[in-house]
Amino acid sequence: MCGIAGIIDYDGRRNTTPAVESMLQAIKHRGPDESGIYHSNCASIGNVRLSIIDIKTGQQPMSDASGRYWIAFNGEIFNYKELREELKNRGLSFKTESDTEVLVQLYAMHGKDCLNKLNGQFAIAIWDRENQELFLARDRVGIRPLFYNITNGVLTFASEIKALFSQSYINRELNPENLVQVYTFWSALTPGTPFNDIYELSPGHWMIFDRNGLKTEKYWKLDYGHIDKKLSLRDATEGFNHLFTSAVRLRLRADVEVAAYLSGGIDSSSTVAYIKNIEPGILNTFSIGFTEKDFDESAYQKEAVSYFDTNHRSINCTPGDIADIFPSVIWHSETPLLRTAPAPMFILSRLVRDNNIKVVITGEGSDEILAGYDIFREAIIRHFWAAQPDSEIRPALLKRIYPDIPHLRKASPGMLKMFFGYRLQDTTDPLYSHLLRWNNANHIRKHLAPDLKAHTEKYSPFEGLLQNLPDGFDSWDPLAKAQWLESTIFMSGYLLSSQGDRMAMANSIEGRFPFLDYRLIEFCATLPARYKLNGLDEKHLLKRLVAGSIPDSIIRRPKQPYRAPIRSVFMDDRAPEYVREMLSASKFQKTGIFAYNSVSEVLNRITKTNMASEVDNMLLTAVISTHLLHHQFIMNHNNEFGNGELRKLKITNDK
Length: 655
What we know:
Strand order of the largest sheet: 10-8-9-1-3-2-20
Number of strands: 20
Strand content: 15-25%
Helix content: 40-55%
CATH architecture of the largest domain: 3-Layer(aba) Sandwich
Radius of gyration: 24 Å
Shape: globular
Number of domains: 3
CATH class of the largest domain: Alpha Beta
Structural class: alpha+beta
């Protein structure tokens, strides 16, 4: 795993090597082991490396056998051994044992079509010396990030935005419309980001930049339009088992130790069960618990550890721990947040690194491909309720899927209708499954500063989303629509980014996700809905598959989504000084994003009642995180974005 950066300047009026070096400084946490830069007359590309495969000879940037193509690569190609044999059978030889050399040789032979052969998680930059063009590509679901800017014809790209901002010619401004997207969808919609003129290459896309400009194209899409209605549940289970076994086996490939997260849920438990079956022996596992019982899963974690007999380490997270680390979380996530959940993942990743582990396998992706989230069950109940909107019994079903939310446990029928009844009967709306969530988040807009509210008053974040729905979307079943929205927006933009890549790589940890093997994703997209969500039984196929392989109590346990406290983090008298600063009138005035009086009314109510609704918590987190983002990236123009020297920096000049 690595970080990459580069500059393409066809005018060639300056030496871009020092500039790329400063960019790599900003992201050296992604690759603390060594670094390198390739420089030609109009291109400089660089890499900071976290050495995992071929530790001795896998240094980057690296060229193909002819020296025409130079690659800087962030990620892993898990099927590189098979691809290597394929290339050797075509007469190619190799100088290293790395997946990087396989990738650049594969590109030299197949061009952009090589992407269809890759099973991995990656952000790729390849410079073609002969044609003087840059090829950029990102993995299918967006596990690894890649950002870029074009100013005065100069393309600057990097794994993180802070590397781009290390260059003084790139302006630092927040984008009002994209902030509205964040306050609605929890992330900006690619290629947009929270910043003006900073773009993210969308998942499943490639891009070529040459003297004629920029060309971008999609090479993979998530398609639910080909359901295999004749597939039996038995055959589906066997097919899933075969693919998941292969996915886990591939992700165990490394020249360093591979550990696993064990959260006490069915996803991580299933992953650990497969790991132990493939590679029996000692397995290091890690988990995080919470001192607030509403969020804690420690009891299930202990049961899983005992069942699998792993070498386990855990850490308890307090609201104070989250508060202390939150500024670093924003620094690494580079976006406003509506949840504090990334903070415990930062703490957990740090625990892994403190134990000298570089690679950890996790259970992310299962909820998306097998309909495990409450939002899928919520949509089913709302559809059922919409047929009899005056019913008091039907909305009561919602209590069954949200036992973890205190104020809903004893909610009256009237309260349930008020909270869950938003656009209840608009069941034909293509975004129906997510309308309630997005409306709750969108309440944040009510608290925007007057000028920003006026500027974005007529802007609808839904219009762009509706225009980019895939062909045939209207003909998909309701669950398929919900899964597509969750996977392409929430999973890619928030789960795999703010809560995934950024928190792990902040501590130089590589996360691997067997449930997100593209073969498994495509297979699950063809499954009948009832194999995934059977009535209100989520992940029905997976539960059937792992019965007898993980503790029965974990299979039967109520669904508890991963959450972290918010009110007790920021509204406690012992909260760090920065919290008071971020909520001060002067900060509201300097930032100009939220209205102080409006937000203060909410904060005063929370203080008086010692209670906060889900909407209140989202607003509180949004305000503090946005103000931190503004402070760190907009106001702090003197920030050098990285200190110290790059380790083992090697510069290759093309002569």
